[in-house]
Amino acid sequence: MNNFPDIADLQTLLVACLGAVACALGGAFLVLRRLSLLADAISHSILLGIVLAWILVRDLGSPFLLLGATASGVFAVWLVEWFQQRAGIKEDAAMGLVFPALFSAAVVLISQLAHSVHLDTDAVINGRLELAFLDPLIVGNTPIGPRSAWILGGLVALQLILLAIFFHPLRIVWFDPAFAASIGISPVLFHWCVTTTASLTCVSAFDALGSILVVALMVGPASSALLWARQLSGVLVLSVLFALVSATLGFVTGAILDVSLSGMIAVCTGVVFGISWFAAPEDGLVAQWARKRRQVLEFRIGLLLVHLSTHEDGPDSDEECRYDRLTSHLKWPETLVTDVTSDALRRELLIEEKGLLRCTLRGRDLAKHLSSN
Amino acid sequence: MNPLNLWEITPGLATVVLGTALLGLATGALGSLAVLRRNSLMGDALSHAAYPGLLAGFLLSGTKSVAMMVLGASIFAALAQWLTGLLIRSTRVRPDAALALVMGCFFGFGMILQSHLQQNPSAAQAGLKDYLFGQAGLLLEEDIALLAALALLVLVALVMGWSRWKIITFDRAHAVSLGINVFFWDVLYNFLFILSVVIGLQVAGVVLMSALLIMPGCAARYWTKRMSTMVTLAGASGAILGVGGTFASDQLSWPPGPTIVLLGFAWLIISFFVRDIRKKRNQYSGNSAKISDALHLGGVGAN
After folding, report:
1. Other Cβ atoms closer than 10 A to B40
2. Where are the domains of chain B?
3. Scanning every residue of chain B, which has its alpha carbon at the shortest distance from the alpha carbon of A222?
4. Among A264, A12, A168, A197, which Cα is nearest to B108's?
5. Closest CA to B134 of B50, B74, B60, B67
6. If you count residue pairs, one on A and one on B, with CB atoms under 8 Å apart, how many are there?
7. Buried b / exposed e across B175-214, counting CB within 10 Å, b at 16+?
8. Which end of chain B is more exposed for a tag (fewer CB within 10 A), N or C?
9. pLDDT tens track of chain B, all 303 residues?
10. Cβ pair B91:A283 closer than 8 A
11. Four-point Cα dihedral A323, A325, A331, A335, nearest 10
């Protein structure tokens, strides 16, 4: 690996990043609609469309192949819906039935045509990111960068334009389909627009990235983003950001270790998700742990205040409210007493007078409130 | 004329037929539970997640040792299942996204291992790619023993705990209130599920494994409303699909895994249309049929 980032590496990185952004934008809506596994179903089904289109046009470079692939992705979605609505099969089973069937048909067709077509089923799963730069788009006589980069770049542009035009109705449809229908926006129409875009994304991206990385990039960044953001715009921006981070990180580590780049990027979407799971506000593990700790402390302060306010004006106040006797009265270890009292003193719920603890006005109110509940 | 002569059953073909039949029996019966529990896609996720385990087993043992690879695959599948459950329980991530995410990342790791293995070519490595699409044709006699053990284990577990499986599948809360150790039965179910996926990978491959699990169950659901009939029918049709698909693939020289799946899909569609026709006929055949149908519907849970 001499002079590491050479022009081919940069072109590969560009393809990976554009693919990641395209998948993240297309996938975010699937994740929000709880249709994540549709990405899996579509990315496996498009192979059939490619094979059928090839049988018609007999040219692996023909744009009809992409058209056929997109159509078969949409067909897969339609078939899943048909099984669900007309044939009484649950959503999960419907997906599990449709894509193996379409994929099997494609594999059988390929095996029968093996002598006349070079379609590698293995490459459909694993992708050929490492080889993307070998297939440049040629305008006139000059190569102007990898073909996949132009296709994926065009797709990202298309997605951004669609998003800019339809952002507002999409937001309504995605969070409240019934309301959207009542103000004249058809949820069904938008459902098909989004699944068609998802299908188009899978088709454009699978050649370079492979169907599994497409699934990982469609679902991973959006799921991570959902842990950080609550607004659609925030989710979309963060999805794109996380996808870019995963693609770059995966590319660099994959290149250094000299292993499958697609695999490494897929693992990196998992790593990004893992970090989000750990660190995200509210839903992250650290935040959950801190919240639990805070709640325990609040509860203990409440207990202390109720204890003090019950005894402080009584005959046994000298005994019950003495700071150094609390360990035996509350049955707390000494360190806990120190922690809780110091926190309560800092928040001016208590004051200390000659070794005796007394509630402040606020502390007494809080204790009264707690014991009346 | 003996019709069997047409098929030219060689000992190799007989082994494959027996193997796919045994696998179809086990996955069909167990998969119909998955269909009823609505976690049909667990099979797909686990088969993808088990792939790096297979390769890790190969990498550690240095040879294509079935025991190590099955062990590795089981560990990865179990890890994936635990992680998926944890994600669903402790975050806002939806079940579908959790499955897809875990599946994608685990398989990505598999791709890394695969590319690493390809750089150090050894003789035994040539067969590793077969796990992506399955190579039923490569089944050996010692694999039959493994498949037979799996089928036996699944059947014994289903028969022994039948009433418990049924209660847990249809009404979990009721099962808990009866004092059934739901945790134990869940662990057993997951164990059998992982074992079927891992062993089945060899025959059906990563992509088509899930179809083997749920197609027989979904088709059987069209023929009956009783769970016992459904599971029996699913197991039997799974075995028949295995046999039929293997013969068909041998005759047409199609790849066996996809052939079995396509045959299963055809069986599913036929089952659907038969039910559709029966349903339409019932609608036209007067009130008495409707009443008996309604009574029958009322008794679904009580078989």
Report:
1. 27
2. 4-302
3. B97
4. A264
5. B50
6. 183
7. beeeebebeebeeebbebbbbbbbbbbbbbbbbbbbbbbb
8. N
9. 444 555 566 777 788 888 888 989 999 999 998 888 888 888 888 888 988 998 888 888 877 777 888 888 899 999 999 999 898 888 888 888 899 999 999 999 998 888 888 776 664 555 666 677 677 667 777 788 888 899 999 999 999 888 888 888 888 888 888 888 888 988 898 899 888 888 888 777 777 888 889 899 999 988 888 888 899 999 999 999 989 988 888 888 888 888 889 999 999 999 988 888 888 777 766 555 556 666 665 544 443
10. yes
11. 50
Tokens 């299908």 locate to A199
The interface predicted TM-score of the complex, written ipTM, equals: 0.83
- CATH number assigned to the domain covering B4-302: 1.10.3470.10
Give every CB contact of residue A350 below 8 A, 6+ residues apart in sequence.
Answer: A304, A305, A308, A341, A344, A357, A358, A359, A360, A363
Are B41 and A265 an interchain contact pair (Cβ–Cβ within 8 Å)?
A: no
Q: Which residues of A199-208 are buried (b: 16+ CB within 10 A; e: fewer)?
A: bbbbbbbbbb
Query: What does the CA dihedral A272, A277, A280, A284 come to, rounded to 10 degrees?
Result: -170
Closest listed residue to residue B150, CA positions, set B31, B26, B260: B26
Q: List domains and CATH numbers for chain A.
A: 8-131+143-282 (1.10.3470.10), 286-372 (1.10.10.10)
A108 vs B114: CB contact, 8 Å cut-off? Answer: no
Interface test with A, best of B36, B111, B116, B267 (most A CBs within 10 A): B111
Angle between helices A187-209 and A63-85 (to 10 degrees): 130
Residue at B227: amino acid letter: M
Q: Which of B87, B111, B211 is closest, CB to CB, to A96?
A: B211
With CB atoms and an 8 Å threshold, state whether B104 touches A258: no
